[in-house]
Write a structure and sequence with these properties.
single chain; 353 residues; alpha+beta; three-stranded antiparallel beta sheet; 9 strands; globular; AcylCo_DH-like_C; Acyl-CoA dehydrogenase family protein
């Protein structure tokens, strides 16, 4: 893929025509579609999926020899961000960046089925919170066997699934699989660790896009809304709310882009990467609290209605920040990393040098 120009929200060059195409596809879909009912379970649109597949976006980062488009994580981040901006819910990241990546890494065949991935806990119980499991056609499962892991792929229709949702109605299901009689494909524990890093990074990217959307919508609202004879944007208290939200969103994005840059440049192998991902998730988690509070405050009562688009950003940010590790968990990881580095190594840990 041609990468010729630096986009405003990326540390690397991404083809601007590709970014425009992604945004256009989701924009057309949002304008033609109807919003989901409040509290309803969300399913992805199969027609939209087929269109994305025809454009090479469903397996954007897959190897070309296995049917992918051969792009990278920066392009994938643009795709994920475009979907968030337009309120489109689909297992794009789970399919391409997680499930199909696992199959490629394990030298397993890949067809056109829609996939998601999850890890069975060590106690052999149900894998809970599996994203889009009941909506996917195949589930790539990792399960522990002694000190190793095995990988297997299952048809979702053949598994015992208990449906559930997150705060915005996206499927987060429980999967029960008896793997005692299944050999599976042996995979190294490092691959499972990398799946955890990539899963955490996906949610950080999504939260950042949601926060940016909430801030942009808030700026547009206060610039056009008139109160007491002048725009809301002229009131100092409103300016403070907007500036605080924008600063937190910018910090979250900077931390996330730094972690993604390190991950891509080192093929997810940097000794500093775990700390950087933890910092990114911590920053996005705390930023979500400020941005959500301030955005709803400046919008007033209109921002609490289902018809207003603000909630598609704010509720999404709150839902995603708690997945693949809570805010508290990532705070503790940041603290543990800093303590382990000690006074002599802390600066190098922060700067990645």
């Amino acid at each position: 893929m041609n990468t010729t120009e630096l986009t405003s929200n990326s540390l690397t060059v991404v083809d601007p025509d590709l970014v425009t195409m992604m945004d256009g596809v989701f924009s057309d879909y949002r304008q033609a579609g109807a919003p989901a009912a409040p509290g309803a379970r969300v399913g992805y649109d199969r027609n939209l999926w087929q269109r994305l597949d025809s454009l090479g976006l469903v397996r954007l980062t897959g190897a070309e020899q296995s049917g992918g488009s051969g792009a990278g994580w920066h392009e994938a981040a643009e795709l994920i961000g475009a979907a968030v901006r337009h309120g489109v819910r689909a297992p794009l990241a789970e399919h391409d960046l997680l499930a199909c990546w696992l199959l490629e890494a394990a030298d397993q065949p890949i067809d056109d089925a829609v996939r998601t991935a999850c890890v069975q806990p060590a106690d052999g119980g149900a894998a809970t919170g599996a994203p889009w499991a009941a909506e996917a056609e195949r589930i790539v499962l990792l399960w522990p066997v002694g000190d190793e892991y095995r990988l297997g792929e299952f048809d979702s229709a053949e598994l015992s699934l208990t449906t559930g949702t997150n705060l915005i109605g996206e499927p987060r299901d429980a999967i029960s699989v008896d793997t005692s009689g299944i050999a599976g494909h042996p995979v190294p524990a490092e691959l499972v660790d990398q799946l955890g890093r990539k899963s955490a990074m996906v949610r950080a990217i999504q939260v950042c896009a949601a926060l940016d959307g909430a801030v942009e919508m808030s700026i547009e609202h206060v610039a056009s809304r008139v109160q007491f004879g002048r725009p809301l944007a002229k009131f100092q208290a409103i300016q403070n709310l907007i500036s605080d939200a924008a600063a937190e969103a910018a910090l979250a994005r900077a931390a996330t882009e730094a972690a993604l840059h390190t991950a891509v440049c080192t093929d997810w192998a940097s000794s500093h990467l775990d700390f950087q991902i933890a910092a990114a998730r911590s920053c996005t988690g705390h930023a979500a609290s400020v941005v959500v509070r301030n955005a709803h405050q400046v919008h007033g009562a209109i921002g609490t209605t289902h018809e207003h688009r603000l909630h598609s950003y704010t509720r999404a940010a709150l839902a995603w920040r708690s997945e693949f590790g809570s805010v508290r968990f990532w705070d503790e990881q940041v603290a543990a990393g800093a303590v382990a580095a000690g006074g002599q190594g802390l600066w190098g840990l922060i700067t990645g040098e």
